[in-house]
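Record 1 of the preview.
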Amino acid sequence: MTKESDPNSTPPADVVQITPIPRISMQAFCESGELATLVSDAAADRRMDKAHVKVHMGGAPAAIEAYRTAPTPNLILLESGEDRDRLHAHLDELAQFCDAGTKVIVVGRTNDISLYRDLMARGISDYLVMPFGVLDFVRSISLLYTGEGADPLGRVLAFVGAKGGVGASTIAHNVAWSIAREQQVQTVIVDMDLAYGTAGLDFNQDPPQGIADAVFAPDRVDANMIDRLLSKCSDQLSMLAASATLDRIYDFDEKSFDMIFDILRTTVPCIVVDVPHVWTGWSKRILTGADDVVVVASPDLANLRNSKSLLDVLRAARPNDHKPRLVMNNIGVLKRPEIELADFAKAVETDPIGVIPFDAKLFGVATNNGQMIAEVDPANRTTEILAEIGRIMMGRAEVRKQKKSLPLLDPIMSRFVKRKAS
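->
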């Protein structure tokens, strides 16, 4: 059921953004295995992908010895369980070797406001009290480098099909249109299928430039360039279209799109990414780096296998993020055997946030006219389903349990159950 809320209100905790950590070097000097493990886990988080992190044991004394003859990194993390006087002595000694600009975070177990104020007066960047979680730690580091008054970070929503032709692009475009129209959020669609992208067709546009112009000229990429490449679809919706031509070979390094998304994050509140059904270094990086991921599937065996593989990989790569979502599309095709919705969800261990019925006429008219589903038939149930997916992705609705409604394919499901058991 949809929550009644102000569109401009603060989003729920699982939607609140944490700015990715810039390219910094950080060294942690821990006294406990608990903190060493937590820092290692944080270093694997997608938001710290650019940071270079090393973990040492020994606390402040080890840090002092290490920096007697070596330059200090951008950030030093010290764990101290000692009394205040000894901590002060260690900090005073460490200050003799710290380079200008080095930040220091102290981790302790005493929740003492006077100690906190004393450390801040000595120039310590932050004081963290154990225990805390990985995201708490990442957020603290992020705040050191974003500062107060920094622009809010745009939310990246990635859509990918479990199999070619399942309609992931259509759903991505319609959800983006709904977020921009209903929620009044400035939104950009990024069509990553550079050779065959359909965003231009779906919005009845033929932009002369698009994302290919940026990725093939990385030295020229800046906010002004990205703004020139955007094609306006409505007051709240713009598009970074694919070239949809075959005069180039679209092979990229996995980090080729990083700067484009870094710029978009700082200028647009919502970025909907239409990721093609390919598995490359850059496509995996976009999916694992997104704030939320939707896998679109149809109820057949190939989709079931591919969905499970995708969802499992993304769960493992994004342990501190919301689990990837599932949308079931093309449900109820006449005379087609279909895996029951409940059994599909059980096999992939994810309940769908939207179940879209097959409607050849509705989708066909929208595609041929270059319109969105809501423009063709605002009262259609599919229009509300797409809008609900957008609300869920933006943290403005709760996921509702889907009902059982599809025929069961017992032989297929038994194979998956046996495979899982083995």
